[in-house]
Write the structure tokens for this entry.
Amino acid sequence: MTVYSVYEPDKEAPDLAVRADRLAFVKEGFSWPALFLPALWLLYQRMWIELIVFVVAFAALQWTFGLGQQGQVLLGWASFALIVLFAFEANDLRSAALERRGYRLTGVASGRDRTEAERSFFRAWLPRQAKGARGPERGQERARDGEAAAPVARGESEEVIGLFPRP
């Protein structure tokens, strides 16, 4: 079973189909593409800051170990270790990059593969979006044109944060 974190941009979309298309599914765990092609993976994900740090780290390793034969052997092993570490952390770095760009965590999806995880996520997500788009919940009335909304007395609100009603 594969688990995905689902991120949504803060920008408002014109309709639900566009919002669904903008969702980003980030796999939790090890990233095979990041192991075999780390720089290309960073370019593909448009993670520019991480790419610069990655290149600087390899340049620092080259400078540290020097050009001698023993230094090159140590550089090879250190590079291998850095790439393996990067492959384990790549998806977490992608999540952080998405949050830095203004995305927010919308939910978690799981399935045998990405398609099944997306399907299960949208089965739960779409009804919630349709419910939110319907309008006010029971007990609340829409304000008519020119009328102010009726104030809600303290304790009458149905909104709850944790175990306590909103003040």
User: Anything to note?
Assistant: The helical segments are 16-22, 32-36, 38-44, 48-65, 69-100, 114-133.
